[in-house]
Protein 1
Amino acid sequence: MSSESEKEPDGRHRVVVIGGGMAGARLAQQLAVASEAAGAGAAAAPAVTVIGEEPHAPYNRVLLAEVLAGRYAPEVVALPTPAAHHLRGVRAVRIDRGPRTVHCDDGRLVPYDTLVLATGSNPVLPPLRGLFETGGTSWGHRPAAVLGDRFGGGRELPDGVHAFRTMDDCLTLAASVRPGVRAVVIGGGLLGVSAARALAQRGAQVVLAHQGEHLMERQVDAHAAGLLRTHLEAMGVEVHTECRVRGLRTDLVACADPAGAQPAPMATGTSGTRPADTATDTGDARPADAADAPRPARGADRGHRAPRAGRAPAPRAVRAVVLADGFALDTDIVVFACGVRPRVGLAHAAGLDVARGVLVDDELRTSDPYIHAIGDCAEHDGVVYGLAGPAQEQADVLARAIAARLRDPGPHQAGNQVGNQRGDAAAHRYRGTRALTRLTLSAPPAAAPPAADALADAPADALSATATAADAAAGGPLDLATFGEATPAPGDDVVQLSDATRGAYRKVVVRQDRLVGGILLGDLGTVGALARAWEGDAPLPAAPLLHLLTNDGGS
């Protein structure tokens, strides 16, 4: 078992970051900036180690849909590599809080003075029938993100079934797409809409199945969702809302028995050897409950032999997505875009306070004074953001706090450590993020890919796509910006402007004299003024509310 040096040769403070994604990369970058701004020389700057499971350099995951669409090559969305010691392709498996050491899967021990969890989140895989090999013991009873590894128990998805969260997910999916291939995207939120659009641009025949009443219900109202749906359908995407998916139908693509006989491929998954459930239940928009999942296979009475211990299950390939009413959507590819869940297993095993995410205070400190958490895995003031913008803001705040503490380090005993953090970092507190989400469904054909540095400084939750022939049918690019509470509460004032001929829609929600939310679709000329009014949380001027939607104020 190898170990990093117990102390840096130059005595520098050791900051270890678990997670090499956007939050971890931003923190490492900003630690260097903050240390320089605080007047710390090279000898006083912290020694930063970033432990990342992915083999890739950090990248802007907000733009993964652009890589899938073919607009950007993977290297274009790469983020600047911060000056730090990077352990790529290495997984942290345990935190030993006593000696303050991180244990890695390659046997390495990495000691820390300050540890930062930036472990991100896992894609949610609903407990659908046929998703995992039925010979397992818990294949469909728990979402994958709450299990030990990414999909739990070393299980593999059937061929053609994809999560869409990492660069490897994106590249694997892109390699399987060709003109005319049939694809079903499950989930019509921001990620699902982006994935469906990207696949359509690659020439796939796309069906978007969403369990909610309308697309992107967390960000937009029914009117804006209707315009969004019209635009997607003009690009060739078939959209189904209030659509409950019950399971997958798969084929065994290789199933040799011990005697050497090779049975013909046969259907498994949703129906096993019996017909799919044909009971009509389209009103229930939820995924099939865990109780609906079939029991594990019982050998020959299920039509095939259950996998023996130690034998890898026969590979399977998806053939259809089966809905609750029994209707089957034939497909070659399934993409899950059903949301994410914070990765908290490491923190939970270490005994840190965990709710939905790792609980942190205004200094982004966990229940252990030596450990912080930022990004998708962190829960601050009851909120798990799951967005790139808040993750970057948290990284910036924490970098300034660490740099300020190191400027006047004081004793490093546990009791004094807490006092120093509370005192020195008092001016560097995280108060939450008022995030604005932007989505662009098309872009001018001649648009050149921006440089990597420009992407790193781009709005955190901005997404864009390449123009296609469908753009003309869809009326050109469709821009969307949402912020705050788009659904009014009783007593709120609402101002709406709609232009059906231009596919434009604007709506703001005002509570007393404060702007609390809004939706801009089609024309973002007023987004700058509205975003500043919302982010500043200042009283609105006495001008009529309509002024909010007609004054561009600089965007």
Note: Confidence is low (pLDDT under 50) at residues 135-149, 256-310, 411-425, 443-475.
Protein 2
Amino acid sequence: MLGSCRSLGTRSYPSSLTNNHVLSLTEILCKSLRCFTLVSVQEQLKPVEIDQNRLVSMLGSCKNVESLKKLHAQFLVLGFSENLFSVTKMLTMYFILGSWESGRLIFNHIKNPDLYSWKLMLGLYLTSNLYSELLCFYRSMKVYCLESDNRVFAIVLRACSELRSLNVGREIHSQIIKMGNPDSFIFSGLINLYMKCSIMDDAKLVFDEMPEKNVVAWTSMIAGFLQNEAPEESLVFFNPMQRAKVKPNQFTMVSLLSGCSRLNYGHQGKWVHCYMIKTGLNSNSFTATALLDMYSKCGTLIDACAIFDDMHSTDVVSWTAMISGYTQKGSPFDALKLFREMRRLALLPNSLTIASVLSACAKLGSPKQGLSIHKLVIMLGLEGNLLVRNALIDMYGKCGMIDESSCIFESIQEKDLVTWNSMISGYSQLGFGHEALVLFQGMRSNDVLPDPITMVSVILACSWLGSLKMGESFHGFSTKAGFLLNVYVGTSLIDLYAKCGYPKVARSVFNEMREKNIVSYSAMISGYGIHGDAENSLSLLRDLEREKLQPNDIIFTGILAACSHKGLVTEGRKCFNRISRDYGISPSMKHYACMVDLLGRAGKLNEALEFITKMPIKPQEAIWGALLHACRLHMDVEIAEIAANQLFDLKSETPGYYVLMSNIYAEAGRWDGVKMVREMMRERRVRKLPGWSSIEVENRVHSFTVGDASSPLTVQIHDVLERLSRHMEETMWEL
């Protein structure tokens, strides 16, 4: 049987065209023939007629490469292997079944392949997403086939676009110009290439040269602007499209809706929706999902729900868009509720769904629900997905489970920027400033460039550590990188300088910010609150009101704190009353604590106690703690006992309150009270934590506890302290 196999004609190909690592065609088929008998002994007694068309029709029934090789052997035995039609069908099946190397070997044995055969191979490489192999094959084609057409160029341009191979794309462009007469597919392919390579000016030039601009070209330009982070240009580009009376398709509308989503242009999004209704482009799930996504991201969840409810059929994409919308707009409970409903309908979530749900768990600070989602991730086999892993790192970090975050982080081999940001942010938000900065150094060592999100996290770490010098270096880096245009980077710098004792520098950063939001005002007013600058706090509140911004609860906390430090009782009362009267905000426990502190510092202890008794909500630890501090300041033992008893009834585990009450008793000579408080501390196992301080020397923060002798420079430190003490005493006597 093997002797009847005909020798296939071969040509000499350059090394780029042959595949040394692949077995020769004869070896492959010989192995298949060993386990395959074309005609059994019994069937040889009967005449059997197998024609070529029957064998070709059997190719589609092959479910794997092995069965295809056996059928291929029949073609060889029956002498059908030199028929071009049969060969092209055969190599097509090899590509479909994933054995493109075998398909390439078959093509290599075709005598003098025509242009159709070359184009077929290019198309098969393209549909198999083998873009690098496609370009390699095209180079071989240019050696052996002098012909070409628009279809060939369109395929090669698509591969260049996917690989972002600008140089090869420009070579193809020059060949197109030489050949002349490009069709609309070529123009659209060139536009797509230049847009994906972020060369928008060249894309515009190609577009302008088009003799007839069809909907594909217009849509390619609109989508291209969107891909290059120019959503405003994509929306503006729709105007000349309308003037040209080119009717948009569903892909045009989806691109416009995506642009509205990125810019948070809800009003323009509604206009696009109306246009879609008028032109009948809102009747399929593809455009409906885009509408759903736009309304969700623009904050109009009522409209998003209406779209979702009106959809005839919903899939995982539409459910994910709705869940993501709830999560992003601060409704994590609704997001989790919708996810449970999705699971009840037996819809399998994808990686985007899981990431959105984990984000909802993070916003709720719910580790229990986050753990259940993590179990689902393992069940679905998504634990290797980088998007999901990043979401898990973020969720565990925001739920205070930093060790779990670190474990997942360390397990990731190929970390992207989001991975690093999630871990650094987790450390910073939980107060692990040193760990965050060490991780940032590791990120830079791995040649990962930081972005504004990274800067916000490391500046926050500096705030925790009180590391002004390090913070200033990040300020300089942000200036060079152009990150100061980001409102959150500017806000984090305001917070840093205010906490490090430089409110004037913080105000300078605030004044230089081009864009200010409510978070920026909150940071600056809180900074003034730390330093007791009530005048500037109130002045900023007036500026905020002129900007038509709605104050939040943090702003009033900062103002009340500033009034408390300055003893401005009247101004503080007015501000507290305005919280609910003028802005419709229900005062929080922090606001009540600030008012108690304000009255207490001013010596109005009875009024502060009366204020507490009239509170519409049950006073918590912070309220009684503020009153106890005021009693210590003015040595009012009677009211101090009332506050302390309330704290003890709440079973407070804060050692400072016990120590404070003990000190009040001691100063009043009430040693029985001192004994009682200390016994209570022993019974409740409340231990006073040692006080600590820190100092920054040469960009390194050193921490010291009371009586600390762990530093190798302890002797020198105490020597300097003694000299400073003597100098202060001498100066005091001179005064």
Note: The radius of gyration is 36 Å.
Protein 3
Amino acid sequence: MFDLYHGNCVDVTVSILQGQERSRQMKLSAQQCCEDEGQSVQMLLDRPNGKPVKGDVTISNIQERAPETVCEFSFWEKGDTWQIGQLKRGSTIEESDSQSTPTDQVESARHNLAATGIAESSKRVDDVLTAKTDQPQAGPAAGDVRTGSIAGGSGSKPIVLLINDEYGNSHGDVSTIHRQMAAFLASKGAVVYSTTLGAAKDDEDDAAADGVHLIFPTKFEGDKRKPNLDWLTWEHQGHFPNLPSDVDFIVGHVNITSRAARQIKEQRFPNAKLVQVTHEIPEETSQYKGDEEVMSIGEAMDSILDDLQHANVIFSVGPLIHDNYTHQTKQLQLEHHEFLPKPSDIFTKMQVNYINTETKVVLSVGRIKGMERLKGYDLVAKAMFMVMEELSNAKWRAFGVSPEDFPESKAIIQANVEKGKIHFTPLKHTTQKELCEEMKRAHVVLMPSRAEPFGLVGLEAIAAGVPVLVSNKSGVAWFLGKDSDLDRPIVEIEGDDDEAAKTLAKRIIKVLKDGSKEFEAAKKMKEHLLASKPWEASHNKFLETFGLLVFCSWAVSL
């Protein structure tokens, strides 16, 4: 099955048996496809000898360098009826000798189109499938091929404003997903703007390559404050006066810029649709951040739900977060979908070579200071002490520890070792390119969080083809657990801390000792992940929301 998107160019060829063949090219428009009559192309073809005709229709996507056939079917007339058959997009409609009325044929075609996946629901088929017939007569026959869309923006190119404080892949999961969404929308024909409080040269270059327009804050003379989220939330009129004049969609991130997105919509773009993206579950994560954070859970959830009830659409990152907010918003009757991130190309294209050496490298990813309980670094410290006692040449590298945080991070790790000392190598790097280089050197990547709403690094490690161990308490484990070909990395973090650390240590030792076998398994998981493309359905739903997914059905009028 080949998907078609707003802006794609298709070639429609209609040929009559022993008669004419005509072709037309057309550019798909989501706006036109949403209209009652859909988007159509008509061609006049002669009926040979004025008799009922047989013919074929081929629709090809010529957007690609190598054109791809999207749909092929045959049609023929019998007396005062017409039929469609031999649909070649996942199934076949066999030719029938029986006579039927045009209405019967329409219903049959609807049923068979739905079965092929061209139409995903009976409602969509009813919306877009049309067919007409006239008495066969001498003279021209008109071939009418139509396309339809399941959603549409306010213009031929929807204008999307994404609200965030940064842009790029080096700032954590939220910013990585923000960039993925922005670049994805831009690649499918949207005009995309993204706010940012500041950007490094690399981030600006990334935005330009993605086709995304960055909007920076206006600074005033004498104001010595550094740009902050208040500028987006409460002071956007003054600090962001240069927002586009017309916006169809506004996107915010819960609970970072969700309030800012809501404020900007209500005060400046009341007709825009508000899309909120949920990334966090305070009831899960705040339990491991200290008493003050625990006491603020109720207030945080009230604020989140207040923002969500004003949204037109909600997207939740991964199955765990989606399940949580499905429950939290069940009384609000909101449109709510899951968004599964796609690993960045830098990971999917990464080549990994396993060489059997005595030196074994264990890689953890993320800040330690203030996150030791939540991210499970106390468990890693205990586990790595046991690993190093059995495998003396094992090394622990901690990616994302800044020089400023190192002294306190070192003290936190040491405090969780009952006897002796444990050494780890802090790596201050933050970019995806640097993370890839470290993954290439690693024998296993760890993500042992006690609570992790999603955990993008776990999915990235699988996409890179590196052995990885992820906590069963993570959203990515929820996702992996649904597929028996992908559940190998899951570690049960249960019981008291000492038992959990022992379980983790055993799994790490097993991976390090069975390196060749583990890397072969990681390779197969990568191949399965990339072949199955589990994110594709959620990405199509995402495009549909913004009017960028063109849903097509084909009908021929004679």
Note: The first strand starts at residue 4 and ends at 5.
Protein 4
Amino acid sequence: MDGLPFLPGFRFNDITKKNYNLSAQFKWTNGYALPREKSIGIGKEPLDVDSILYAKTSDNAGYDPTLTYGKAKDPPISIPESHYEKYDGRCLAFNGFTRVTVLESPVDTYRVRHVKFTYFLVDDTIAIFEPFVENAGYTQGCILRRGPVPNPNRKNRTWHWSDLNNGVELSIYGVTYRLCNCDAYTKQYLSMQGVAMAPDEQMPGDPYTITRHRLTQRQGQQATGTSRRSVEEDRLKQFLINDGKVLRFYAVWDDDWLDTVERKYFIVLYYLTDGEVAVFESKVGQNSCGKDPFPVFLNRIRLPKDRNLLPATFPTIYLESGEEEIKEYYQPKDFVIGNFISVLGRKFLLYDCDQFTRDYFKEMLNINQPGPIEVTEPDSADPANQEKYIPPYTGIGSPEDTLQNCFSLMPKPPKTLDFVTYVLNAAKKLRYKLKLACVREEDKHREFIMAFCLGNDQMTIQEAPSGKNTGFIKGRFMSSVRLRKPNTNVDDQMFYGTKDFAIGAEIWIRGAMFIIVGLDLWTYNYMVEHPHMFTQEAIDGAKKYLEEEGLLNKHQEKIESKPESEQQENEAEKPKTKDLFGDQLIVENID
């Protein structure tokens, strides 16, 4: 039937065939639809067109592939591996040590420093590194950076891997290193190169490090019998048991317990979880001293009993004390009603506590807290009702200016004189002749003129010119100032005045004693017209002095010799009299 032509009536269907499905024409690869080779037809029957069963076999016995594909190429020649590719990243590692001499040390004479010696095969360079040791006392890390190291035993040669072995001592820039052991790769490489490897040596220990380690272990064993873990467990246990439990005390603080002016009330809290203390200002309303309220007086801290009790060698000038320096802190047993506690230098009196605190002391500490203490308010608790007093003079500035700061925050200029009096008497000055009390021989011939202003009670002293050469520069000795009497209190306001000036009177000025030896005629006339401002002895002495000098008689005769009309004119005008201290004329009104 296979030879029948493909014509209708010559083809017969297979009655047993039931599958007429058409196979897929594409296959999916990486999300793309690609055509697939069609090898089966409808119902998955094989197609004769694509089958190789009917392919004719050819005779390949005399077939020469070179006629079709050409001559085959020769295999590639192998390139030898370079030195860099062969030894890149490969190193020889040794462990060694060096001894360093220690000078002027009573503990040890030398130190042993362990090093790691690395030799790089790619370029024959060496690097030396020292592992870090805690509390070694010297700088550690890289000792020698990677580079060629000259060999002192071979001129113009560097250290080579053939010179390395266990037990070999290398001299590198004046320092001798001894190699003790190496790793497995180093042993294998040197053995393959024909080097007989010496056995490994044990690294010696550093005597100082060993001694320090033993001392640390001994101190740790003697410090406490419990380990760090047990201490942490105790703290955790204390926190879990006492979490939320606080002892509450009521305290009072006085600025001065002996001389009470005001009292402030506080609440002292002791936290049982960690033993810290906090102080808060009371809100009951008892603090009526007029100061601004500050709720938090002291944050939570472990309160020391005496913060100044420090070791003698502690540098308090630039360091603050910590837990290592302060050994004693307040504990619950120290808080008893009636006791004083020191809060960073301030004394607090405990006068009461709450009920929980009383029960805790009784059950846990077997301490019965006393009853509350009645704190009485001082009689003068209100600052407004207190007697005010002026503080003593501090010596800064004038007493009058300093006194104004006690009356107001914005001080005003002091009123030291009457303005009307000053305007009427500003030009009136009493003039006296002074001499220094003879202390030195060269002060014997020095003469001074004192002018006392009646308007503001201020004095001016000038050294008068004289014909004798005293050796001192003439001119102003003291500027205009209101002079205070010696050996008097600053608050008494005692100054030199008109009643202190008389012939022969002594005046202390700037540590020197002056004696009044004369005065001018205008001063005497003013004393006569205002006797209430001077003593009678001063007026009599002035008159006697002027009579001895002959000035008083001459002046009276000159006035009496003039006619009455001229005398009246002279009274209206300013009188002109010759000054007894010099050739200058005084033109002043004595009215």
Note: The chain has twelve helices and 22 strands.
